[in-house]
Amino acid sequence: MSPHFEFSPVKLVYGGDALGFQAGRTIFVPRVLPGERAEVEEVRRQKGVVHAQPLRILDPSPERIEPVCGYFARCGGCQYQHFSPESQAGAKVEILRETLRRLGKVNWDGNIPAHSGPAWNYRNQAQLKVGASPRGGRALGFYEAESNRLIPIDACPILSPRLNAVLATLQRSPWIDAFSPCRELEVMADERDESVMLTLAGSWNEPDAESLARKFLAELAGINTVAFVENPTVKAFGEPYLAYRVGDFTYRVSPTSFFQSARFLLPKMVTAVAGGESDGVALDLFAGVGLFTLPLAEGFDQVIAVESHPVAASDLAANTGTPKRKNIRAVGATAFDFLRRCAQMEPDLVVMDPPRAGVGVATLKLLLNLRPKRLRYLSCSPPTLARDLGFLLKHGYQLNGLDLFDCFPQTYHIESLARLSRLR
After folding, report:
1. What is the per-residue pLDDT across 279-303, written as a single tens digit (0 to 9) for each?
2. Contact 63/33 with Cβ under 8 angstroms?
3. Among 3.90.1150.10, 3.40.50.150, 2.60.40.2340, 2.40.30.110, what is the CATH number of 100-117+262-422?
4. What predicted TM-score, i.e. pTM, was given to this entire model?
5. By the number of CB atoms within 10 A of the CB, which of 23, 142, 233, 379 ranks highest?
6. If you write DSSP's letter for every residue of 128-141 in order, what string do you get?
7. Predicted pLDDT of residue 77
């Protein structure tokens, strides 16, 4: 096979690439659609698999559109701007279905509703890298795909308007000149897209950090919190946390705490995960700041929320600690350690929202000892969801439904909700 060759993929796969076959080899190429004919260039081989880059689209698909963003194909943030958001959601449904079948032997032939929101300006949170600008000095941006080369970004069409305004300001002097000690900058806006929390990771001396924070707070519209992180230390100025409202509940979100970043779909996701159930005991594992805990407590007699990250656990305790919520118990522990020490309770519902690594078989084995009646598993990674569902289906549970939340249009990322019940 020559370095340049023609390629026609057969399907899209998780991770953003299109997959095809040629001369007995499996080939992965980004930014090409199934059925298209493209000229591509081989960039590397790994264990018989060829990874290539598209050079020209020779025979485009009717679904192909012009990308909105001028950074697309260079910036590693988006993978799918070359076809419509509606088609993206449909493709993700099939990717989810195929991944569950291939990796977990989970054969789900039922409907998978795809919940979508606006395809642009939806992110209320972003992690910007800080590095050298091609023009000299410092710059903010994102890395190229599969590299640590910085692409300076003036505006990102999937960020909220407020975050784009902050980004545009920070790219200019004198602000950008202050980022020499900084490796990464996280920006997060509230649900109204008005109040912003800045979290800077790097090495700062305390007087310089405080001086810069005071300048941010005084001179940049909308910035109410500035935090400096040098693990494990977090020092915040201004408001100590961001207040974020979802439905009837307002959550305290401190710097370094995880919170969902798709602002338009968040209320629908919370209803799907935590709504429609009542009575008895609910466990909320990997609870974060309590996004699902508070609505669960509206219907259940008792809710036990478990979170291991120290800052998020502190937010969880604050968000669930008011007197009117006496039916909530917040536990600072890993899900594994909590379940290992847990007495028999046979919970009526267990909600799980793990990080990309999934729940894991060791933790699921402990969970099965409690014989929960129903499970709701919110996943951000189809491969680890496939592994965990495959285990649960072999150990007394049935899959009752799957939903896909297209929280991140233009990207390959998939959020999915699996609903299970105990067979006996």
Report:
1. 899 999 999 999 999 999 999 999 9
2. yes
3. 3.40.50.150
4. 0.95
5. 379
6. EEEEE-TTSSEEEE
7. 94
